[in-house]
Amino acid sequence: MVLTLYCNKMKKYRLKPGFATVVCLILAVLAVTVVTQSVFAAAPLPQNPQNGSVGLQGTISAPPPTTGATISLPRGGQSFTAVPIDVSGICPKGLLVKLFKNNVFSGSQQCDSGSFSIKTDLFTGTNELLAKVYDSLDQPGPDSNTVIVSFNDNRQGAGARVTLTSDYAKRGANPGDSLGWPIILSGGEGPYAISTDWGDGKAPDLKSQQFPGTFNTQHVYDNPGVYNIVIKATDKNGTSAFLQLVGIANGALGQDVAAASKKDDTSATQTPKARIVWQPAAFSIPFIFSTFWLGKRYELRMLRKKIERGDRPF
What is the pLDDT of residues 148-197, one digit of tens each? Predict the structure, then answer.
């Protein structure tokens, strides 16, 4: 816009057309070639996958699973007086099976052999058991059959039983790194005794929890693999809750990778810097002068023709 106004002003002062054209062309070329580029000075990116992050490497979008799990045991209508119970059935290989009781997550297992067996407790009264399968992108497949069972609590004046659940069915970390897992404890009466069997042959971790709420349990796996984790919580009245989970040590990407203590992540700081690029102008200068020379020759040729025809040259 500024360049157009400037060229029009030149015409107002009746400069020679060829000269005005060349000057405008020079200004246009300089306006295009003097370019400001943004250069970002970025700090080196941390190596991935990192603890406390979700890693996806070379993952191609795929449709969700089309085949669900099937609960074989227990059978509908069964009644129980003790927990935990085993919920087992068949499932598509390679998928994660999540078990729900009355729509509350109550355990998980990786389906590597075409079948699953998940240890779980029950609510007092009626329990609707349902299994769902998920792929590595956390896309759900069809629901399993619903199995309705009941649990009879024989305690006198039994209050609310202690329960365990989590927002994560599967978590992982590299061998040698600390894997942390937030667990939600509710019901019962404190203090609570917490036992966590991490499934790698080591002695279970023991801890005490005074009040209901979310607590964090931690572990370090020495060797890569897929591990079945069983967490048991017992309140002061002797009621127990169980939660089975899937721990991954250096497992396939696409799982929820996490650790108890996250390292400070120094994100890449991008600072814009201005840089003027003059190289295109060096190539444009010969073109500008050649255009000026051709323009002058054309102007002289037109002037001669006007003189030959007897026209006024100006």
Answer: 999 998 876 667 889 999 999 999 999 999 999 999 999 999 999 999 99
Residue with structure tokens 């048991």?
Answer: 232
Which phi and psi angles does 214 have, rounded to 5°?
A: -95, 130
- CA dist 197 to 41, 171, 194, 204, 287, Å? 47, 15, 10, 4, 79
Q: Where exactly does CATH 2.60.40.10 map onto the chain?
A: 70-249
Residue-wise pLDDT for 222-255, tens only, equals 999 999 999 999 999 889 999 999 999 974 433 4
Instruction: Tally the C-alpha atoms within 13 A of residue 224's C-alpha that lie toward its C-beta.
Output: 4
According to CATH, the topology of domain 70-249 is Immunoglobulin-like (2.60.40)
Highest mean pLDDT (candidates 36-50, 88-102, 249-263)? 88-102
Q: What is the pTM of this model?
A: 0.61
